[in-house]
Amino acid sequence: MDRSIILASFVSTERLETFLEYLIKRFKMNRDRIFVYKNEDEPTQNIVTYKVFLKNGKRVDLKSIYPTTIIVHKKGECFYTINALNSLIEREHNLDSGNIEHKNYQIDWEKFQNKMILTNKEGLVVNNIKRVFS
Description:
Elements: E1 3-12, H1 16-27, E2 34-39, E3 45-54, H2 62-65, E4 69-75, E5 78-80, H3 82-92, E6 115-120, E7 123-132
Parallel strand pairs: 5-6
Antiparallel strand pairs: 1-3, 1-4, 2-3, 2-7, 4-5, 6-7
């Protein structure tokens, strides 16, 4: 059984068109299945999201696609990584990090629409994003 994953690639404005052409050729996907978001907190950065289908048991080498590609999950118009979701739960519920059953806590997803939720060396990062229609 095939499974799908959502990938997000962080691409500078000057490389965007070349990257989109690359995705269309490499994955044989239609342009209307690739979504571009502007990172409103970093204006020169675009976030390109797309779904990739994997055969059962197959893996994808993210670095072979593009060096700044990650697996993300989506809830409405919010994208997040699992680590970022766990950090968000800890922040929203004032929890100390550690051995927590994160699935027992709810997030008010309405507060996080049009956001990209990630973690970096400094911790949780919530960026404002806006879809680019072209």
